[in-house]
């Protein structure tokens, strides 16, 4: 049994196709197949069922894959411990970030991060929270940038920002005339929401009790994009709630309304597995992000945190 065989095993479990797994491992498909066959022969068990629809781990295969992932993770941690002792920040950084943060935060930190650490290979994926959490636990992501708290003992949270929710209100809506808004105002008709699965949607619903759906309106629409919601409002349709990072360049826009004090905010954190050892890298990423946003958004200044679960 070799480390290389374990890497092939995990790749096949991840991609469930021999050709794609081989491509990700930078080997030919026959090479990967032969090495996995040797591993099965050594262990004396069938690890994968091969079908026309792809491959699936057998019952014993799933257990072997789980253990292989742990072995590979511990091997990686060994390398990282040595690199830290040598003062190096090198290798791959796999970061998952939620869609309501990605357009506004990634452009602020990505270039500076790779400039500060030129030996680091950064891979960023835009994922929902429900996708990020299991991948942090199985070590297919290194860092998550998402809304907290999570209340999960397997994960460590490093709070970075406390970002206010703001109203984004069309000029023909009754709320447009108000200098500030209150949570109880959010019961007014015309509220646009993100689609199911976004933690931002759950937080908006935790802030307010929206009016029942207007069945007389000839359409309904739930978006996966904050920017799409803003465009709907700009074209004189209702109102929505947005994170402050999405309107930093238009805070003087009369369509943007702050909540009365205490403002509701979402807590944004860097999240890692409890076994994550590259703490200087975590600190560096946090410092870059904090240095790129207005001081009022920095953690520790808010009292009205809205949970997403």
Automatic annotation (TrEMBL):
Residues 65-130 form a coiled coil. The keyword ATP-binding does not apply. Residues 1-58 form the HTH lysR-type domain. GO terms for molecular function: DNA binding; DNA-binding transcription factor activity. Keywords: Activator, Coiled coil, DNA-binding, Transcription, Transcription regulation. GO terms for cellular component: protein-DNA complex. InterPro entries: LysR_HTH_N (IPR000847), LysR_subst-bd (IPR005119), WH-like_DNA-bd_sf (IPR036388), WH_DNA-bd_sf (IPR036390). It comes from the Bacteria. It holds the Pfam family HTH_1. PROSITE patterns: HTH_LYSR. The keyword Nucleus does not apply. PANTHER family: HYDROGEN PEROXIDE-INDUCIBLE GENES ACTIVATOR (PTHR30346:SF26), TRANSCRIPTIONAL DUAL REGULATOR HCAR-RELATED (PTHR30346). Belongs to the LysR transcriptional regulatory family. This is LysR family transcriptional regulator.
């Amino acid at each position: 049994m070799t480390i290389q065989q374990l890497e092939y095993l995990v790749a096949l479990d991840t991609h469930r196709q021999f050709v794609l797994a081989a491509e990700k491992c930078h080997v030919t498909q026959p090479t990967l197949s032969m090495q996995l066959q040797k591993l099965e022969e050594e262990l004396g068990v069938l690890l994968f069922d091969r079908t026309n629809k792809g491959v699936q781990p057998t019952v014993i295969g799933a257990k072997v894959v789980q253990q292989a992932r742990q072995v590979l993770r511990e091997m990686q941690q060994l390398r990282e411990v040595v690199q830290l002792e040598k003062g190096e920040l090198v290798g791959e950084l796999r970061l998952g970030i939620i869609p309501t943060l990605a357009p506004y935060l990634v452009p602020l930190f990505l270039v500076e991060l790779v400039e500060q650490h030129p030996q680091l290979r950064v891979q960023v994926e835009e994922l929902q929270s429900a996708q990020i959490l299991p991948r942090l636990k199985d070590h297919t992501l290194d860092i998550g940038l998402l809304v907290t708290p999570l209340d999960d003992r397997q994960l460590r949270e490093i709070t970075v920002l406390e970002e206010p929710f703001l109203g984004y209100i069309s000029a023909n809506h009754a709320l447009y005339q108000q200098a500030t808004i209150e949570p109880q105002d959010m019961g007014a008709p015309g509220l646009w929401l993100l689609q199911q699965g976004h933690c931002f949607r759950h937080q908006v619903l935790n802030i307010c009790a929206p009016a029942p759906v207007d069945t007389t309106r000839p359409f309904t629409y739930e978006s996966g994009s904050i920017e799409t919601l803003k465009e709907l409002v700009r074209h004189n349709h209702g109102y929505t709630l947005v994170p402050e990072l999405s309107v930093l360049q238009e805070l003087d826009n009369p369509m943007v309304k702050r909540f009365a004090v205490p403002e509701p905010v979402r807590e944004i954190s860097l999240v890692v597995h409890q076994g994550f050892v590259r703490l200087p890298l975590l600190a560096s990423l946090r410092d870059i992000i904090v240095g790129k946003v207005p001081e009022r958004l920095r953690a520790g200044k808010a009292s009205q945190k809205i949970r997403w679960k």
